[in-house]
From TrEMBL:
Positions of the CN hydrolase domain: 5-275
UniProt protein name: Glutamine-dependent NAD(+) synthetase
Organism: Roridomyces roridus
EC number(s) per entry: 6.3.5.1
Biological process (GO), any one: NAD+ biosynthetic process
Domain of life: Eukaryota
UniProt similarity note: In the C-terminal section; belongs to the NAD synthetase family.
SUPFAM superfamilies assigned to the protein according to its UniProt record, in alphabetical order: Adenine nucleotide alpha hydrolases-like, Carbon-nitrogen hydrolase
Pathway(s) it belongs to: Cofactor biosynthesis; NAD(+) biosynthesis; NAD(+) from deamido-NAD(+) (L-Gln route): step 1/1
Protein's UniProt keywords contain Nucleotide-binding: yes
Length: 717
């Protein structure tokens, strides 16, 4: 007979500085874990204050309130009889650390500070915290008086130590430490640690889950062990969506997995494992030789077991239920188009309910970007209805409040189109340059998803502004099609775009009033990541909004999402958007000219995605991007053609970089996002023609042979 242990990890929708709400969700997760018979519960990183506190971590209040919440947890009935791994900031010897606090029966067993901090991309942990650099060393930490009163302890172990129970050994690994080359679990495992806990604040990116799962499986594949992964879930106050997906792995196999996208505030994942499986997996000569010479970790010894000690009398029917949770199964992955349908929709729901506004507003252009934004809102409504059908009382209460129901209302959302009509408002703002096709597509889309739709012509407003300029200057600007200069043409396009932004905010403020409701709407943006990267947008136009669910998503992925939604959401109208040529419709349409986005930009959206990845992910400047693309594109473009494309991209990116400083806060979904706020830190005043770099590109392009298909064929002819 083996030694069975039931373990639990969780995903919690914590919110920065929501100490009361965070406490309630932590206690709920502990209660669920206990109901399932778990003797160890692991929660997300910094779950007490919320991961996204940012500079608030530097405030003494954040640390104080975290201790106050911990005192509530320690004294709670839920936290008795179970080991709990909870996260909070701790000040040790006047230094702020990101810590895990391990508790059991009103006692603190260990405070384990994070040793390797996340400090790139969206993360700036070194701004608030200091890493613990005394590896395999610990010190005494003197507890604040509010904790001493509860635990009866004056001091506890603080540092890089492990917990030794009567039947196994537990070690802690925090988020980024899993991603480092020399992860702590390696040395802990060689020193006999059998159960590893990992508490994370890991945000969603398209296709990122594959890497996360591979690391979790690899952590125990060679080493052997049980790995409990907990993660934040939801929007906790900024651009990131934390995608949960709590997991349990045993000896390199995932045995339990939570949802990646969910409206649930609390989700607990549990499994019953046989710790003897770990010991059998480790019975290998090479592993044993390394373990025999491994450096020792300090062990905090505790007088209890994680196993019940009653396995000899466990009934057969109970055993089958216990063991079922530990059998390997196929990990669930979403396709990118599904991730777009779910991730931004969950983010929008959290933002809507926590901002305490009454809905969303988006200007529909009849193009695919604003269409994608609208369909994501509709996807949000579908998730709300699904949660309501499951009886999720928090979702039902939020839906009633957002849609303007009275406190005693019995309203429950049952139809996505009906709920969308309550909380989503769309508007087509046409001008003389707009086509009947885009107007019709906008109307048909609004009808299909159920939004409250307004259709207007804004020529009178555009004419008024144009006439004001004439009155002040005595000159009348003209479009290029009517003989105007490039400066006139651009100015007349921009005034249309910017007036749409002004009108959007007016309608967002007043449409609820028109419908007899109280409150206002949040304006949604609909500029995709490629247009932002290229700067193909007007500063302070409809790209300027409160938030943007597609600002981190490429045009290519958005098209795949719309194709997916056409079938999955039963929206046949979306086919017309997929087949339409992307156009801003800001210039007059003539017999010989129709404005098209890719022609305006001088590059395709697919090319923009390649440029974006090379610039950000591969860290390429102009010259290294050119040399890489000569190899990748050399079969169909000449070196001179590639050189011109690369130079055009960097020229346009550089001269439009200033627009990124005012970019609407967008859902982070793509690794090459140009978001200037925290993710992509660069100057916004460049030497836009890069004279040194471009000269080097030109010199190399001139001497490289042309191996493109067209060139080879011409030589053969």
């Amino acid at each position: 007979m083996g030694h069975l242990i039931t373990l639990a990890t969780c995903s919690l929708n914590q919110w920065a500085l929501d100490f009361q709400g965070n406490l309630e969700r932590i206690l709920a997760s502990i209660a669920i874990a206990k109901e399932r018979g778990a003797t160890l519960r692991v929660g997300p990183e910094l779950e007490i204050p919320g991961y996204g506190c940012l500079d608030h971590f530097l405030e003494g209040d954040t640390v104080l309130h975290s201790w106050e919440v911990l005192a509530k947890i320690l004294t709670s009935e839920e936290a008795q009889g179970i080991v709990c791994d909870v996260g909070m900031p701790v000040v040790h010897k006047n230094v702020i650390y990101n810590c895990r606090v391990i508790i059991h029966n009103r006692k603190i067993l260990l405070i384990r500070p994070k040793m390797w901090l996340a400090n790139d991309g969206n993360y700036r942990e070194l701004r608030y915290f200091t890493p613990w650099t005394k590896h395999r060393q610990s010190e005494d930490h003197y507890l604040p008086r509010i904790i001493q009163v509860v635990t009866g302890q004056t001091k506890v172990t603080f540092g890089d130590a492990v917990i030794s129970t009567q039947d196994t050994c537990i070690g802690v690994e925090l988020c980024e430490e899993l991603f480092t080359p020399a992860s702590p679990h390696i040395l802990m495992g060689l020193d006999g640690v059998e159960i590893f806990t990992n508490s994370s604040g890991s945000h969603h990116e398209l296709r990122k889950l594959y890497a996360r799962v591979d690391l979790i499986k690899e952590a125990t594949l060679k080493l052997g062990g049980v790995y409990l992964y907990a993660n934040q879930q939801g929007c906790d106050g900024d651009r990131l969506y934390y995608d949960g997906c709590a997991m349990i792995a045993v000896n390199g196999h995932i045995v339990a997995q939570g949802s990646q996208f969910s409206l649930n505030d609390v989700e607990v994942v549990s499994a019953t494992i046989d710790i003897e499986d770990v010991r059998a997996h480790r019975a290998k000569s090479s592993r044993s030789m390394q373990a025999a010479s491994a450096e020792r970790y300090q062990r905090v010894e505790v007088p209890f077991s994680l196993t019940s000690g009653k396995f000899d009398v466990v009934r057969e029917e109970d055993m089958s239920g216990l063991l079922s949770g530990s059998k390997p199964f196929q990990v669930r992955y979403h396709r990118p188009e599904e991730e777009i349908a779910l991730g931004p929709a969950c983010w929008l729901w959290d933002y809507l309910r926590r901002s305490r506004t009454q809905g969303y507003f988006v200007p529909l252009s009849g193009g695919i970007d604003s269409c994608a934004t609208a369909v994501i809102v509709y996807s949000m409504s579908r998730l709300v209805v699904e949660a309501a059908r499951r009886g999720d009382q928090q979702v039902i209460a939020d839906a009633r409040r957002i849609s303007g129901e009275q406190p005693d209302s019995t309203y429950v959302p049952t139809d996505p189109r009906e709920f969308t009509n309550r909380i989503f408002h769309t508007c087509y703002m046409g001008t003389e340059n707009s086509s009947a096709e885009t107007r019709q597509r906008a109307k048909q889309l609004s009808e299909a998803i159920g939004s409250y739709h307004v259709d207007l012509n804004m020529d009178s407003v555009v004419t008024a502004v144009r006439n004001l300029f004439v009155m002040v200057t005595g000159t009348r600007p003209q479009f290029r099609a009517h003989g105007g200069s490039a400066a006139e043409n651009l100015a007349l396009q921009n005034i249309q775009a910017r007036l749409r932004m002004v009108l959007s905010y007016m309608f967002a403020q007043l449409l609820p009033w028109v419908r007899g409701k109280v409150g206002g709407l949040l304006v949604l943006g609909s500029a995709n990541v490629d247009e932002s990267l290229r700067g193909y947008l007007t500063k302070y136009d409809c790209s300027s909004a409160d938030i943007n669910p597609i600002g981190g998503i490429s045009k290519t992925d958005l098209k795949k999402f719309i194709a997916y939604a056409e079938d999955s959401f039963q929206l046949p109208v979306l086919a017309s958007f997929l087949n339409a040529v992307p156009t801003a419709e800001l210039e007059p349409i003539t017999e010989t000219y129709v404005q098209a986005d890719e022609a305006d930009m001088g590059m395709t959206y697919d090319e923009l995605s390649v440029f974006g990845r090379l610039r950000k992910v591969e860290k390429c400047g102009p010259y290294s991007m050119f040399t890489k693309l000569v190899h990748e594109w050399g079969s169909f473009l000449s070196p001179l053609q590639i050189a011109e494309k690369v130079k055009l991209f960097f020229f346009e990116h550089a001269r439009n970089r200033h627009k990124m400083t005012t970019l609407t806060p967008s859902y982070h979904a793509e690794s090459y996002s140009p978001d200037d706020n925290r993710f992509d830190l660069r100057p916004f005043l460049y030497p836009s023609r890069f004279p040194w770099q471009f000269k080097k590109i030109d010199e190399i392009a001139e001497v490289l042979p042309d191996r493109s298909v067209s060139s080879v064929k011409a030589k053969q002819d």
